[in-house]
Amino acid sequence: MIIAVASGKGGTGKTTVATSLALSLAPDNPVLFLDCDVEGPNAHLMLKPSLAHREDAFLLIPAVDEVLCDHCGICAEVCQYQAIAVTGRRVLVFPEMCHGCGSCALNCPARAIREVPHVLGTLESGNTPEGIRFARGVLTVGEILAVPVIRQLKMSHPAQIGETVIIDAPPGTSCPVVEAVRGADYVILVTEPTQFGLHDLKLAYELTCELGLPAGVIISRDGIGDREVDDFCLHVGLPVLLRIPMERAIAAGIAQGLPLVSLRPEYNALFKELFLTVAGVSQ
Amino acid sequence: MKIAVSVKAAKSGAAFDPRFGRAGAFVIVDTNTGEQQAVANPAAQFGGGAGIRAAEFLVRHDVEAVISGAFGPKAYDVLHSSGVRLYQAKSGTVDDLVARLLKGDLDAAEGD
Amino acid sequence: MKHIVVLSGKGGTGKTTVTAVLAHLASEDPGTRAILVDADVDAANLELLLAPSIIETHEFVGGQVAVIAADLCSGCGLCADVCRFDAVRANNGLYTIDPMACEGCATCKTQCPDAAITMLPQVSGRWFFSTSRYGPLFHARLSPAQESSGKLVTLLKQQAHAQAVQECYPLMIVDGPPGIGCPAIAAVSGADLVIVVTEPTAAGIHDMQRVLELAAHFGIRSLVCINKADLYPAGTEQIMNHCQQNGLPVVGRLPFDLSITEAMVHGQTITAYLPNSPVSRVLREIWQGILTFVHEQPAVK
To answer: How far is CA C94 from the centre of its chain?
Structure first.
């Protein structure tokens, strides 16, 4: 079973929830944790894996053999991203624009283009002290495309039989989130009871509808705002799975990188129960 | 030689456009024949990669020098690697800017 | 015209809250009037504090998707062979495209022997020009599951920039998105100054370093503002040390203060809601601090 933890708004507690869910399940269930927030992965701070294994995440970009090239310009014509420019005498490749689709190489009549890896980031994995299988992607600063890193992270770490997969998704609702969440059995949306939280929850909920995935809500920092998030959930039939109250002591502990279930062990049972609810729904 | 100047629209008397990649149009002046040709910029409405496309476009028109306000690094790469010279200016008419270039009064542009 | 972008790396540090405050304070003096841009197009929250009135609405074509004409498709499957984005689905011997997976690269179209594939422009969202409490606001709504947020950010900034220049606005203030990828890069592009709003949490510090690296990569000066600074003093100290070692000015430290959330729940910036509270006074000092750096910077070339 694959559970994705997402939110529209950043900073609501996605990683806090995802890591605590993993920790609450870990003693009795094999867990694979994928930190897909590749622009700013933080789950390792709470789960403390030993990241023994490392590989590159890369995009295949064109390399042009200027001897074979006759500057016909077809590669530049088929490229939808302005990643190749052909002038009378030279061909220039702009790796940062390239999406790795392979069209230029495929369509070059002179077969003058081969594809070479362009490193976008790193994939790292290892186990946590509790035996959780952990993997994350890290986008290299200055690289634009997060999606290929997320895609490769998921492909390099397929679930083993009987494993529960927990995906820590990036914030927002655009393509990196879709890539992270796609294929999940259930999406947990973490929000806060304020108008910022509500505004972004609506967008995230719309995303789960577009993807056709069942979803439920966790309200964190409960108590700081109003009941509008609850009203919205009731209105659209989104179950509120858990509430985490606003407590400065919790915030301070999380600030130091302590998981919620370490700060408040009673959440172990609550997350286990949440998992059973979710598992029941997604069947 | 052919010199291109970035302008706001492909019509006579159009004002100088300080943008390169998303300039409305270019006036291409042939200094041998005195002919001037105004061409719409295919990249004018582009989101990303406008500079690259505009640069490619001018190189295909055999332009040897370009006058604009500022060039991004990718446009600079495309033009520079094709031996096209880049100049920057703040304002002026097409005739005025071409005259200044020929007199050596225009500064070479950096790709930033 | 000086161009300021507010970033954070990690979401939830208070970027939008601070940007709204800067917008408020900038509006108090004609010499600092600002055009405002909400570049967090995935989750555009700045409007919740600015009470905008929409003047113009525009559709945004983010990209394109491939469509296979069923009556022309011969079922050869070449499209599926060449698609690298897992966007081609087999359906009873014919093929269709999953629009959510399709990246619009058109490779399939170039290979289809039946000429059955066309590329359809996709309206992926809308962008708006509004007047607001603190100045003209350019903002957008990207439909969920859409790509090209970077392209939309670039478009918003271009529009705002053109207006700012035309109407002689001295400042453009941009509420940036979280992260360091495509939309953040688009937001930071061309900026004179980056304000990084961070929090002294392990995750916040981690992401702050990445976003500072991003700004440095583009050669843009950064200032740091520490929100919730008293939440974890050791974390704040870590940030101060990092900034000192890297020559990065810290323009202010804001206390963890629930009245900011209260103000937000009432749809207001804290400086408007409780103008004389200690945190509002710190914010005014932060604004003055930012202005000294703004005046130091040479304008965008």
So the answer is: 41
